[in-house]
Design brief:
There is one protein chain. With about 280 residues, the protein is of the alpha/beta class. The chain has helices at about 15-25, 40-45, 60-75, 95-125, 145-165, 205-215, 225-235, 250-265, 270-275; strands at about 5, 30-35, 50-55, 80, 130-135, 170-180, 245. Helix 3 runs parallel beside helix 4 (about 95-125). The protein starts with a strand and ends in a 5-residue tail after the last helix. The mean pLDDT is about 95.
């Protein structure tokens, strides 16, 4: 059965792969990009099944306007994919305030803005719908030089942890997608390069940078088309999984982080309970 999807950030990466696969399978897609030229080839190929909106997710008014137009023009949207974002690399001291603010404005605030814009429309349509939030395995753990990027992913996961029970009664489901490192232009999508400080060469930051350089493509195990296919397959799963971890590296990272966190928590049980009010 044909479904309608709304996807942000469709010029490349997971957004582009999702758009292509969905259109190939006969679905309708409302695709947003900052420059419509980037998906002109898909528009020429698929015509009216591809609705295109120009959107920068840092523009709150534009998000509201584009979302409203998409729901008006298409009548019903079954799935919303909040995908727009980019990666910022650098040790905390290396990054500038403007770089950090732009990262948060795009990845975290942009995702929250989109959710707030689509929820009323999903709530008002029969049967609700599903939001896929593209998070990251780094939303459960973090690597050196990725602290600010991780903060945006931990932040959006926290936002949806609180929002999911608010909107469940309206038939709106949410899946947080946590991919590992995939062979997209993800690493190159950062328009802001941080100057590398020599003092960090013999720290975890330097070790991580060297590991990436040594590993090359081996560091990026994920196939973006397979990731996109897994997201589409998940749309048929009911009830919706709250999290969808994709990639062997993602599984290993998240599993290790959660196991370590749980062990640390359990070791502190007596201390935790000791701080309750005495009855």
């Amino acid at each position: 059965m044909t479904k309608t999807w709304f996807i942000t950030g469709t010029s490349s990466g997971f957004g582009r792969q999702l758009t292509e696969l969905l259109l190939e399978r006969g679905n309708r897609v409302a695709a947003t990009v900052r420059n419509s030229v980037d998906i002109a080839d898909l528009k020429a190929r698929y015509g009216d099944r591809l609705w295109v909106g120009n959107l920068d997710v840092t523009d709150a008014e534009a998000i509201s306007s584009v979302v409203t137009m998409a729901f008006h023009d298409l009548g019903r949207i079954d799935f919303v994919v909040s995908n727009a974002g980019y990666a910022l690399f650098g040790a905390a001291e290396e990054l500038g305030d403007a770089q950090i603010e732009r990262q948060i404005d795009t990845n975290l605030l942009g995702s929250i803005r989109l959710a707030r814009a689509v929820i009323p429309h999903l709530r008002s349509q029969r049967g609700g719908g599903r939001i896929f939030q593209i998070s990251s395995s780094v939303g459960q753990a973090a690597y050196p030089t990725m602290g600010v990027y991780a903060a945006t992913k931990w932040g959006i996961e926290g936002f949806f942890e609180g929002t999911i029970p608010e909107i469940a009664a309206f038939g709106i489901e949410v899946t947080l997608v946590e991919p590992g490192a995939s062979r997209t232009n993800f690493a190159g999508s950062s328009a802001d390069g941080a100057p590398v400080l020599d003092v960090y060469d013999q720290t975890g930051a330097g070790d991580f940078r060297r590991a990436i350089q040594a590993a090359g493509l081996k560091m990026f195990r994920g196939d973006p088309r397979k990731v996109a296919a897994a997201i589409i397959a998940s749309s048929e799963v009911h009830p919706a999984p709250k999290r969808l971890t994709l990639g062997s590296d993602a599984y290993e990272l998240v599993h290790s982080a959660l196991a370590e966190r749980l062990a640390a928590l359990q070791s502190q049980k007596d201390v935790a309970f000791s701080t309750d009010v005495d009855e």
